[in-house]
Design a protein that fits this description.
The protein is mainly α. The chain is 84% helix and 0% strand. Helix 1 runs parallel beside helix 3 and helix 4 crosses helix 6.
Length: 177
């Protein structure tokens, strides 16, 4: 495996690096690159800041959600979830609409569920699109691939050359005899 990684390869592997999901050897190669490259070091620091801010905001959101959920009965939360997923009939939909209008906790819970659904949907779409271009998987497989393609191509080109020469000689023999 080549020890010198490019900035593009490191960028593709940064998420795995931060989440500590790389094998030790690949992590060491990234560390070597980060020692040499200030641009990638800056990028990883910014990513770590964003993640720490997200974790902090996410913990605050959990506290708020717990407070709202504690004030709303479990059955009502299930019905709100079914309402969002369009699983209720028309009469139950009307009951849910009346409940959310009259109950501020139900309204907050419904808004939270809609936001959560949006986040999940956008994360799913991003993941779906990322799977088409899974650069990190391609980079790792290319780095671990030790096949020497030059000899394979040499044999193929040689075989084509021999066939071509044979065809030319066969053509001359056919024409003159």
């Amino acid at each position: 495996m080549n020890k010198d990684l490019t900035c593009q390869q490191v960028s593709a592997l940064l998420n795995f690096y931060i989440e500590n999901k790389l094998n030790p050897r690949l992590k060491e190669y990234i560390n070597l690159h980060l020692e040499k490259c200030p641009k990638c070091r800056k990028k990883i620091e910014e990513l770590r800041k964003i993640l720490s801010k997200y974790k902090k905001d996410n913990s605050n959101l959990k506290v708020i959600n717990n407070e709202i959920s504690n004030n709303l009965p479990e059955e009502s939360r299930h019905r709100l979830s079914a309402y969002i997923d369009n699983e209720l009939n028309q009469n139950e939909n009307i009951k849910i609409k009346k409940m959310t209008i009259s109950n501020p906790n139900a309204r907050k819970e419904l808004e939270t569920m809609y936001k959560f659904r949006q986040v999940i949907h956008s994360a799913y779409e991003k993941t779906k699109n990322d799977n088409r271009f899974d650069y990190s998987k391609n980079i790792i497989s290319k780095m671990q691939d030790t096949t020497d393609y030059t000899t394979d191509y040499f044999y193929k080109i040689s075989a084509i050359f021999v066939l071509l020469i044979t065809a030319i000689i066969g053509g001359f023999i056919y024409l003159y005899f």
